[in-house]
């Protein structure tokens, strides 16, 4: 049909091939002819395949496994043994709340797993329990987090011995279900602007809790709508002067406020509780709204670790300023972010496992006269799922490191570690939860129609996980904390101050990163070079250093005309990019360490492959930045792109082993389309065939 | 604390500013000092603001409004008058299905709106009804689409007069609720591989419908689980030879198969129906699975427009090949894609309106001693929502154009138009629904905790819309059709063949686009140049042309070693990028036209602003590509970035007017946080205060 030997290079043979391609691959409209040569059997990547990597799943899994797998298996076994405690796909909000409460009671009182004991003393074990029960029902994980990490955590971390003596056992055994009443209708992120007041009454030796206006109604308070009996309420401590003519605002403090009668469960006088109603997800958690009208509590109910009021109305604190007290108060609550970052990786593992197992099973289209191929054999599908799998591994090691450091911090109270864990938990929580939220959509979409069946779990996972991006600190706000912290370190660097471990790279090599890119290495494009951890880490660090230096200059420039707030806002997108770049750098560094420390050579090879994909995919995603300063030459950019695609293909070849190493048995993944055998049959059985 | 006049430029003043910033803006931990100068009042963008654009919302809205607003208002009024037909936030699957059916019956029989009449004769009106009822409940929109566009459409488009005579009225008035039974458990995208058979029995003059294996069970069939009485079943037409010793497979055809008794509603013999169960969303639609065991239907039930079987078992068709018949069959179903693209824009408008109105209301943080600022004043928030608003406008004009062309095609049956509408509907459906799906997440996240309240709608919108990416053609498959079509046009260009309207730019300027970038214009960075539609469109077209030319070369190269299928797969990511780039180019071209055609100068100015943001944001998003071939010089890249941020800020200043112009009254948006007055009160009222 087309002239052969057409001198136009864009025509001739390739137009014929193109024409054949259109005939065969414009998929809906143009059917596959049955008369094509055998050479067509390849599926696109086959000829560049090297010998497939052999991965010993057991060894890889063993290396990944945390030290608390035993308690996780105890959780799985308990819920396996109590099918009536499993959450059905369709359940009303009210039934779900009751079930979730029964699940928690069963876990604590029947299975004898007592998470509260680990909140302070063995956080790694606490997070392991959280991960396991989150896979049973994320609502249960959050319900547990509200009770033990938020309500319980506020009592033991912000209170003193008298509070532990009074409340520990009741919280532990669920006699005292409680709430963490911080957020108000008008104020979430800006905690310092909370408006609820706690005014000391020197005559009765009480605090009077008040909601001064509707904007100050405590909102989204977990456990408040149904089960909570007590709440730690964050309110401005108002202290009258000696003659009661003036009142001093001492800033936000936490107070234990009973909201329902311990025996009758009736709402107490002065407390008004409404149900926040149906949510996008997590409907097993009963969020409520609380309005206080002159509710009196004893002075002892002030959680007084960082600030106290004496019988005669004098304020005392070991910390000198309202800001330092506030920082200390919120600093104690950082565990929630650690838990969310860690749990978010668990969700990503689960969703990735389902999507990848199904994508290996599912076949659609194929070369002429050949069987259809797995959809994971398509380059586009590899592009969707393989960098995600690589990121999951990367996040696994980064959040495991965070948990370790957090536990160490709780043990040692080392001040440098406190700062490091604070910034790292903020950054990882923000980065990982945003990534997981996006990925859940990709997973659903990559499983097509069957991904839309509720039984295959993407809907619930997404709806439940969604709010991870917001609670315990809005991600955009948290990333600004990371950026602020980096700017502080940057300033300290130039003054010779101490740098915490995670930031060391800034001191060690800021200057070299800020010099002009090397025009020779900018052209190196060999695979060995691109897969050299030094090249990868240098590229990440270069980007972060450059973003940091340039935003500091811009902030300085704009501050003179716009003031501090205005300058910060003018540079906000830049600051967020900086924070993400830094977090990616930390993640890569931890991943490279994890590869190097892996004792088994086969597992190490697999991890190295995945780590390279993580690194090169990220560099390619931001190639504009690298190109714009000639950090990489045009041909090197192309080589990075090509290698990232190729590594996706390589990872696809061991994708099954890589998800198996997450060690999620079928009774945890539960999605019929992801069963490790007879998935389609289990799916048709589920529907009733 | 820091030394002033520090000679190090990275230190000194800016470190002090930075230090102050950290104190004030590391938001949770570092409180705002109360002692900052007045100069801090700006919020970052104020000093670069020009006089605010005055937008006449009425005129802009009038220009945007389609010709069928009247029937939409009739829909809104009807449901407003029947509160018992409004879908509550919490409803069981079964109740939702019944309610959805009652909604549809009410619309047709009580409100007297008869959508079936417009499916073929006035599709623009049909889509306007679809848009309006989709905002009542997306399940209702899909339920209507199943009945009228899929089931009804298959009868009138694939059948002949005898079918219309028999079925039109019953479909129209809902006496014949029906299904569109195409997808099977094992085959969705690959429709040609469907396995259900329809074997002609010359003795009884019947077809026998069979499900040969479980993989061929019809799956996800809307209306099948509960309400459907008939189905158009897609099956391979099997024709026995004269002596019945052999059977010829004539390819996939559609057959009308009764599945439930018209009077008793009992499932008919040989038909096995199961409920596909709970879905991620759209639970008002009853999707079922169908297995056929020797179900006999009269020969007349073959929808025989493109192929028929005579009494004596002879096959006749006006179309010469099985492929052309298949193409003609599926080509008639393209209306579904047009409807989804159009409805997806409606969802994007709704979600964007809610997110933007709330972001204007919500205040959090602010300069010291000043009121808190709207969160839409933050650069990061503008970055999330303003390019999305610009895209919504862009998609509005592009899909309106598509609807117009589709209506013209249905009227004229012009062959060139058929090809154009097919590719454009595939591309816009894929591009727009993917964009909307991502944006729904951004909208929820940008509204923080209150975005997570079910009453504020993001959850339902996302869950319902999610499957738009999959049904009526998986987006990844559809984009490949666009790429295939482009390659075909590319080939035709070099042979002087005809190009359809949308592709004209390829012929007109392919050569100029493929020449080396002009090193002079690559450095132009003035605002007038960057906002010149010619620069913008040239940049889009350049990218598409380059991607097209390079992928043709790559396909040619790889075909020799990998064969056609393998080469296509090796280039798949490249092909998808090409398809997206082309669709973006078409969208921009239509947007520029719409700006130029707008008669009112103030509305035109607003549209021009939004169009520039759309164009520059897209160019910046792909800046790596442009930089890599030096299409833009480094400083021009920076200028584009800066201008895109600045335009986001400018659009923010008229964001309220721009969403008002979508003309969505409060009883359509419904989310309390998006009410146009007293939003917080309406929200607290909703919860019970």
TrEMBL record, chains A, B:
The active site is at residue 472. It comes from Linum trigynum. Its cofactor is FAD. Signal peptide: none annotated. Belongs to the acyl-CoA oxidase family. This is Acyl-coenzyme A oxidase. Residues 179-295 form the Acyl-CoA oxidase/dehydrogenase middle domain. The lineage of its organism: Eukaryota, Viridiplantae, Streptophyta, Embryophyta, Tracheophyta. The keyword Phosphoprotein does not apply. CDD domains: AXO.
